[in-house]
Model the fold of this input.
Amino acid sequence: MANTLLSVKNLSVEYTSEGEVIHAVNHVSFDLEKGKTIGLVGETGAGKTSIARAILRILPEPPARVPNGEIEFEGKDLLKIREEDMQKIRGKEISMIFQDPMTALNPIMRVGEQIAEVIHLHEHCGKHEATEKAKKMLEMVGISGERYYEYPHQFSGGMKQRVVIAMALACSPTLLLADEPTTALDVTIQAQVLDMINDLKQKLNTSMIMITHDLGIVAEVCDTVAVIYAGEIMEYGTKEQIFHNPQYPYTIGLFGSLPDLNSDVERLSPIEGLPPNPADLPKGCAFNPRCPYATEECRKEHIELKDIGGGHLCRCCRLNEIAAQKAKEV
Amino acid sequence: MSVPMIEVKHLKKYFNTPKGTLHAVDDISFKIEKGKTMGVVGESGCGKSTLGRTIIHLLESTDGQIFMNGKDITRVDKHQMHEINEKMQIVFQDPYSSLNPRQTVEDVIREPLKLSKRYKTRAEIDQKTDELMKLVGIDERLRHAYPHELDGGRRQRVGIARALSLNPDFIVCDEPVSALDVSIQAQVLNLLQDLQEKQGLTYMFVTHDLSVVRHISDDICVMYLGQLVETSPAKELFKKPLHPYTKALLSAIPSTDIDHPHERIKLQGEITSPIDPKPGCRFAARCPYATEACKQPQQLEEILPNHYISCCRARELNQDIL
Done:
């Protein structure tokens, strides 16, 4: 595709801990077009953040290691280029909004200076110019430029997160990695932040990878969705395909676990059991121990992603049987 | 009408801080009927956890009254306190910090049993511990496990078992599922509902997650900066929110319904400081409908049956649905 900005191919990430190898990300591939947003959805420990950190090359190595994969960004493989070249991309062309605004800022540095630092480094401008631009960025995220000289502890959680966003957007990146940007915030502040990200994305035509466990946020900001479980993409499709027609049993389970605001359900239908230990993944489909439809077939061998129509991918060998069973229930 | 399980009248809890008096809970009144669940929602810092803790006497109230089964329990002596502690329990938000890391699962659950002096022999205590573990679904093999060996969902189950150990009547659930993943969250919510049915428990469910509160509650209180702004039966609140703050709060929830995106009410600014607040509506600074009249103290008023709100402009703003 001519419009592809980022193409992740066959990416894996491993961590070594006390002699055990933890397979955090396993052979993940996806494409992202310019101006579009992909949502990576999954539970704690599914490997979502490791994917983002691998793209930005900020994994702690060791213990982390990328044994295989390609990350093609504007014609370059980010995993192959020199660290000096990567430094020019990091913060300038690709930037990241970190999850926890309480720890993402330097507590003993004025907030404005933390934004100006990025601008000064990447735009090769003078200190004064960087200061002026940082003030503008603060105003863009709805914080008065006068607060440039304050410290993070003088800001509330929502404002700190906006500072983190201002920092990420300071150099108008072409790709934004948003790692649970609103998890630590209250709903009304979350709504403000999501609106702001959406506005800025449109203004700057930025592509975005939105990492979240909240399907509501996916519905609001994403174009395509990848459901991640045990470090693998289990289902992939457009937002409409995933929300109207979820196929993979885990995706269906996620929707069943959510209390719905618009309908009255007496009992939720949770997914039984717990996520697998990434150091000892089950054989075959990683979800099989928790899957209500699992049979011997699911435990035999690794299952490939299959196109089930219109680019909707799903990693399940029993789709026909599940569909038949559901038809019977109705 | 029967006597409510819990009733609070004009309850206040103030904290003295170097900057002034912090009005964490400011003149709150409501009732919870036996066997029902009262959901308390609001943003962080609105005083919802303080309210729960004040009711069960983890914090001493500044003013107002608390009744349990019609009996005034606001000020009690040491002996009565012991009784109250057995009848009112709490499940904490963070299953990581609310369990002693040096106690095993068994120790945590057994502690209240030993303290209560209800059980004479070790065998009786062991038997009760077994029952409790089974009740909340903790595997027998985890009996001697330490909290760090358990995942969040299981730890929260241990916290629930501890709260249930002395057969309380009333439990304050302080954000019990907000630290858990969605699939685990649903398991714990179902457990809480099952326990309520089996044991006739009364809950006060404190949370910021509106879809969870709608799912589990019979009635809901919406709090803003220490004050009650709206209270009504759960379903009605979501169908007919009347207070401007409730409306904004509901419209801010990201919806999974991608075909019918709802109009969002945009709020400006953030929660103001609860230290020495001005009289009048505390939401007025962010409210799109605020006028001069909002600077006067607001009264909680019954606008629809069992549906109370404190907003002087409620009637004119809601003409279409009243």
